[in-house]
Amino acid sequence: MTDSKYFTTTKKGEIFELKAELNSDKKEKKKEAVKKVIASMTVGKDVSALFPDVVNCMQTDNLELKKLVYLYLMNYAKSQPDMAIMAVNTFVKDCEDPNPLIRALAVRTMGCIRVDKITEYLCEPLRKCLKDEDPYVRKTAAVCVAKLHDINAQLVEDQGFLDTLKDLISDSNPMVVANAVAALSEIAESHPNSNLLDLNPQTINKLLTALNECTEWGQIFILDCLANYTPRDDRESQSICERVTPRLSHANSAVVLSAVKVLMKFMEMLPKDLDYYGTLLKKLAPPLVTLLSAEPELQYVALRNINLIVQKRPEILKHEMKVFFVKYNDPIYVKLEKLDIMIRLASQANIAQVLAELKEYATEVDVDFVRKAVRAIGRCAIKVEQSAERCVSTLLDLIQTKVNYVVQEAIVVIKDIFRKYPNKYESVIATLCENLDSLDEPEARAAMIWIVGEYAERIDNADELLESFLEGFHDESTQVQLQLLTAIVKLFLKKPTETQELVQQVLSLATQDSDNPDLRDRGYIYWRLLSTDPVAAKEVVLAEKPLISEETDLIEPTLLDELICHIGTLASVYHKPPSAFVEGSRGVQHKRLPARAGSGESAESPEVGQSGTSEAPPAVIPSQGDLLGDLLNLDLAPATTTVPSVQPSMQMGAMDLLGGGLDSLMGDESDTPGVSHRTEMQSPQPSSDYSERELGGDIGGSPSMGAALGAPAAMPAALSNAPAVGGGLGDLFDLGGGVGMPTGFYVAPKTLFLPAMKAKGLEISGTFARRGGIIQMDLSLTNKAMSVMTDFAIQFNRNSFGLAPAGPLQVLTPLTPNQTIDVSLPLGTTGPVMKMEPLNNLQVAVKNNIDVFYFSCQYPLSLLFVEDGKMERQVFLATWKDIPNDNEAQFQIKDVHLNSDAASNKLQGSNIFTIAKRTVDAQDMLYQSIKLTNGIWVLAEMRVQTGNPNYTLSIKCRAPEVSQFVYQCYELVLKN
Amino acid sequence: MIGGLFIYNHKGEVLISRVYRDDIGRNAVDAFRVNVIHARQQVRSPVTNIARTSFFHVKRSNIWLAAVTKQNVNAAMVFEFLYKMCDVMTAYFGKISEENIKNNFVLIYELLDEILDFGYPQNSETGALKTFITQQGIKGQTKEEQSQITSQVTGQIGWRREGIKYRRNELFLDVLESVNLLMSPQGQVLSAHVSGRVVMKSYLSGMPECKFGMNDKIVIDKQGKGGTTDDAGKSGKQSIAIDDCTFHQCVRLSKFDSERSISFIPPDGEYELMRYRTTKDIILPFRVIPLVREVGRTKLEVKVVIKSNFKPSLLAQKIEVRIPTPLNTSGVQVICMKGKAKYKASENAIVWKIKRMAGMKESQISAEIELLPTNDKKKWARPPISMNFEVPFAPSGLKVRYLKVFESKLNYSDHDVIKWVRYIGRSGIYETRC
């Protein structure tokens, strides 16, 4: 039998001939004709004209012919909806056939006929088939429900098919269960909020039972569905993990990866000190390694996933470096991915081996691969300090090969090495300079120029070198132009005598002859800086640079968590959330990792959180009430004295306890900047000169003007000179000024703190404000009694953040009856600390000539947000990752009608700083940082969807108890 | 899920096109042809996204199989499915070639209809499929036969049908290992592992329950505690440490997980029972010692020694050593002690073949390579020397201890089954850098 002949009919009049054959009486001839039709259809010819003739062949007991006709029908029914109705009868009849294979065939095919008109005719047959006695028919019908839902969702709901489908989860046949799960999962995806796949411990148990019995594909459906479930507690989580781990030995890689997904997700909930947690970690490594012996396409999928897993849990594969060594015959896509993972796994323990490998790779043929290998050597130097020297010498060897792209790549990474280890490897500069002429890629040129500028004082002919670049200034890319400008300015500051002409030349090139605003602005800034105050210029341009990070290309933590939930899928291959490549509503729902059970008190991280207070023996901290009494009796006697700044010794016990706790918190914080640094090395914009960029960027019209002047800690001198610079640059400042100035701290209207009834006629209302970095308590005192009040004094109880009056209560004149006086009391944050409930509670005692009165009030936490709370991006990223996930709290801010820029502007007024903004699918993600007066950092991610008045706010902080109050501040600020 | 499946020839002409989802149109067929097949080497990933449509492809000789989707599908599953699809086609009509696909296009459509429903893979076990997708129609079946088919296709034991009978109950067990090595020029092992497969051919009646045992370290150690520790000491390597293993779906994984015992009801005929990987204490059957010397700019001297490292009574076969030569080679003179060696200009390599070689022997080849002077600055990359061979033992040290067969309903016992065991060790990627 050679069916290939059907592919060769190309003559004219073919359709007519086929028509005749289709209507032939002879069965064989009919079948031949239908085959020809299908062959034509396959190669893309339009044979829809034959519709009635083909459908006429449908009524046959020849199954092969029937299948062919059905195939035709599925293809063309949509273009001939009226004709398609002719087929309905046959379907209905076939669904009653005694042969289950025919029943299944009918139900399978009719779901593929996407004609609205005939769907309702199909409901009855489908209903029957869903309850068919034969499991083969039922499993086919289950999928048919999903098909029908895709055509007409309403119909499926109205007909109650969803409930029938749910019942099938309890079916006795594992394949029926698996298909029902697949169908339900798909339908549920298009109804993100429905509780369709009502997963509870009972259904989970059913699924886990079916998991052991069904086909490999069914196991994938079930595991993917399980991954969407969130166990109630760590125990449930562990028991599911225990039942899923055997799947790691399945021959089908997809089953293995889906099992890994379930385990990675549910592991989040297990306490880390649990034995089982360690066992599980160990069990994950071998199957992941085994995936690398699969076919190359699967290896690629596996490697993309391993890349995520290594970022999330580096401990799993840290000893498996060798398996990622590149084989000579690996396809290029496998090689590149392996290299990525090698760099991530590189550590002091294995660096020698890694370097030897990388050196091998650098001599391979594929250009991309070689480049990546060279870059990897540089990354190793930065990551493992002990290896830096060896890396540099390896790179030098490579430069000696004179292979153009190798040299360029090497120079780019050497620049990074200079950044990381300043003043250590300058001896190689001479070698680099030899290769100046061969550099033709912008990134390499920019890197070389940076090196020359940075080490201008040690390169004798630096001016000549830079001048040679200057000749073709306008032909260079922006990256190179910017770098050249900066380098020459650096050179000038270092060797002012010889290079005056050069610097003027570059400044005029940048400011007068360029259309690029970035370049022009930077040029102007330098020009003015140099002409106004060369000392300040030196401070700014030659400022010490922040350290660079060890890790690059890290996936942002929230995205990483989401991708972990998508292990095995396309999202994990693309390293993008599904919403980035899937159209419509399907799969757009963001998935999240579950939070660790029993967080806070659990043994997870004793140093974090409220442990400082909660672990203290109760005897040391007297109850709040007692303390209040003691405190107030102590000091109120001398009426007008200021509040003592030295605290009585009896309070020290409690204070130490808490102070210690908070200190350790602050200690943690101050450590982090050392761990993680800026990483923009690979971004096209050269970021070597951080301080300049910051300045330049902000002047370009950013709303954060005030903050920009205060923010970069690297330029204290520039700060003091700011007014002078500002004057000189008046015209520039005007551009940005006034457009988006921060709105300032939001001050709530005064509320009643102490009613007159309770205080013998004294009424106190008040509010809190933060003005120019000073915390103030604004009070209105009203005398509602009959007699004059004098001798006012105020005192606070110990409170969570050590708020204390920084001066006396200034009521200088006696308060006569019915008189109101407004006073502003400055507050400091150096008072004694005790955790209050709620956290922002403040207990106050006010005394006058009549008596002492007590009241308590609550201040907005934003009072404590300090002005220098803008974190560096990189530090942010690292800190965010560093803070355990269970410290994350999520809130909804409803009904805010601001766009993200206005919101961020508003928040900035209250010292909530937006560090970065990212827009994904009409959704703005604002990353914000806040620093509290006691040094606690709060990181926040605010999601703003265009047109949606509800914001989602995720707050991460090492002291998770503040999150709630931070959220309140957001509410308060955004809504007023 | 999978939205459509296309098969192309090397020119990009469509041989098979089956669309499962409405979001995949005919233009997807062309998009893949234009952007992937015609782009030749430009596409560097098996997953390609073109206009929000994702294409997964695998190639078998010069035939392209592409699965298409617009959703966030399980990527690993799609590739597994494509491989499976190839297996099924091979099982039905042999080699996957343009000719065979055209000749069997009706069958392929029928198969695609069965094993992929709305883009969800369904039972794809060839054994089961062959019972009802025959290209002969299913008219003649009785009712019992029909329900037997459906229960097999959907059942717990989808890979075996009931009522199989053999006059002689027989089974063949092949332990096939490929040993992979990457060695530095100095003879340091950079990486080595064995990936092995246990392939079984079973001709057994009824629904036999089988139990397979090997010298798995974990099992042996567990038993060792019972008393027989002497054995292990005597001949050194009695048990092997298996890094990881995966099993055919017939094996009860939960039982393996809890007791580490391998029990199953086997499919009929040939199938792969398990795959495993070991990295510890591997017997490397050959050692390659390269010596490359550059004599001036136009000459290379190469000397390669191979040493066999196994029992002298055993014979290795099909030995082939491939020594790469630079692209600018103009002529080669070879002298070898054993076998035949030839310079193959088209492959840029000297290929040295030896039919047989016993254990603990040594052989040597030396070659002088004349080079054309070039002004190419780029150095020759020196690809590694690779080697192929076949040895009659398992380089991992794996030993089959038993394979027990129990069939309670039919009257044959474990003793009546004739069992054959064979070990073959082959070279995987066996490379020595030079």
TrEMBL record, chain A:
Residues of the Clathrin adaptor alpha/beta/gamma-adaptin appendage Ig-like subdomain domain: 746-856
Beta-adaptin appendage C-terminal subdomain domain ranges (all copies): 865-975
Subcellular location: Endomembrane system
Membrane topology: Peripheral membrane protein
Coiled coil: none
Gene Ontology cellular component terms for the protein in this record: clathrin adaptor complex; cytoplasmic vesicle; endomembrane system
Alphabetized Pfam families for the sequence: Adaptin_N, Alpha_adaptinC2, B2-adapt-app_C
GO molecular function: clathrin binding
GO annotation terms (biological process): detection of mechanical stimulus involved in sensory perception; endocytosis; hair cell differentiation; inner ear development; intracellular protein transport; neuromast development; regulation of protein localization to plasma membrane
Family to which this protein belongs: Belongs to the adaptor complexes large subunit family.
UniProt xrefs under PANTHER family: ADAPTOR COMPLEX SUBUNIT BETA FAMILY MEMBER
UniProt name for this protein: AP complex subunit beta
Annotated source species: Danio rerio
Gene name, Swiss-Prot/TrEMBL: ap1b1
From TrEMBL, chain B:
GO molecular function: lipid binding
Role, per record: Component of the adaptor complexes which link clathrin to receptors in coated vesicles. Clathrin-associated protein complexes are believed to interact with the cytoplasmic tails of membrane proteins, leading to their selection and concentration. AP50 is a subunit of the plasma membrane adaptor. The complex binds polyphosphoinositide-containing lipids.
Pfam assignment, any one: Clat_adaptor_s
Principal subcellular localization: membrane
Chain ranges of the MHD domain: 168-433
Membrane topology: Peripheral membrane protein
Subunit structure: Adaptor protein complex 2 (AP-2) is a heterotetramer composed of two large adaptins (alpha-type subunit and beta-type subunit), a medium adaptin (mu-type subunit) and a small adaptin (sigma-type subunit).
UniProt source species: Cyclopterus lumpus
One Gene Ontology CC term in the entry: plasma membrane
The protein's name in its UniProt record: Adaptor related protein complex 2 subunit mu 1a
Location relative to the cell: Cell membrane; Membrane, Coated pit
Spans traversing the lipid bilayer: none
